[in-house]
Amino acid sequence: MKDETLDLRVNLANRLADLSGNIIKQYFRQSNLESETKITEVSSMVTIADRLAENAMVDLIKKECPEDGIIREEGENINSKNGYAWVLDPIDGTSSFVKGLPIFGTLIGLVDLNNNLPLLGCVNQPILQERWLGITGKPSLFNNKIINNPYKNNHDYPLAAVCLTSTTPLMFITPRQQAIASRLQKVCRRTAFGGDCYNYVSLAMGWTAMPMIVLESDLKYYDFCALIPIIEGVGGIITDWAGNALNSNSTEVLAASNQNLHQQALKVILSQG
């Protein structure tokens, strides 16, 4: 994608974040909010805020970039006419949103479908006014400032000194996934559940008292697509559980603060078969 074309879409990503954020703020900490549980997915909810925010973003994309495709969480996907597609999750962390906790985010990704290459990713937290932006090949930004990942070049940490995070233990469905999660939980210094997309942006920022590893499964493309450029843009690593690049069919995700920790975690995962 040419620089000027990408710049146009970076601008659009920020507008999408502003637009969805304004809608989401109207429903945050509202009692008796219209919501439902998705019975086909483990521990997954949707609210009126999810749907309205997503629909508004879709309408703006169709207006500004009508040939771009859209892969979305709540509605029907739109086929791409030019090889590019937006990947949208209006509220990643709906369980936190409905509890009135500001540890959720709107995920906005743009992917080159022909090369399976995420071009940009944006995470917006409208309540705390926090925004992360990753562009492939460039340093990632937090509120328009370059992020310094303090653990990027620190390769002295063993797994026994890191924090393992996952959104919920319920996401490990198969016996193999449960065995891998259990093994890593025993090896790592501590395990923390909850967080959704905030696990990944916290890893990128180095906010944690120790390096982090994120281990998750039972995911959809919109759960992680926007996070890939952000993690990679700070020197972190994010792949599937075999160490391969993530794609639209991936469901298992492993992210680490640096290459050394990622390789240590992969070794444990692969030893479980």
TrEMBL record:
Its cofactor is Mg(2+). GO terms for biological process: L-histidine biosynthetic process. SUPFAM superfamilies: Carbohydrate phosphatase. One of its GO terms (molecular function) is metal ion binding. Mg(2+) binds at E73, D89, I91, D92, D223. Keywords: Hydrolase, Magnesium, Metal-binding. InterPro entries: Inositol_monoP_metal-BS (IPR020583), Inositol_monoP_superfamily (IPR051090), Inositol_monophosphatase-like (IPR000760). Belongs to the inositol monophosphatase superfamily. This is Inositol monophosphatase. It comes from Crocosphaera watsonii WH 0401.
